[in-house]
Amino acid sequence: MGCFLASLFFACNSEEAQVEESCEVETVVNPNGDSELALLMRQMYLDADSIKQLIVSNEGTISDEFITELQRVHAAIPTDSTVKTPEFKAFNDLLINQAKALQENTKDRVEGFNQLVARCIDCHQSFCPGPIKRIKKLIIIPI
Fold this sequence. Notes:
Elements: H1 2-23, H2 36-56, H3 64-72, H4 86-104, H5 109-127, H6 132-136
Helix pairs in contact: 2-3, 3-4, 4-5
């Protein structure tokens, strides 16, 4: 009888452990997968944060590679195909022009970078407002 109870106890405990292990699931942001445009935008955010650090430390500015990423936005496939409107293209063109102006500006990079961030926010207000709070964190607060 004692062996039976002991084996029942261990069987129940191992079953609970298996159930607990099987309950662990990965957190999925988008169950349908991320679009090419979404992935590109996330990478551009990371790159913009690096550019911000270069500007704050007065060690550099926007790169040709970042401008190329901005240009890739035109061709990147979005989650929702209706996003690619003439207005979307116009916003992106403004962003590219702002980035090129920042690259050429050697005097007021902080203001130029903040204007670049403002163009990002302008576009996201029209098309995808979700990331705006995160994008605002890129703004450089002048000292």
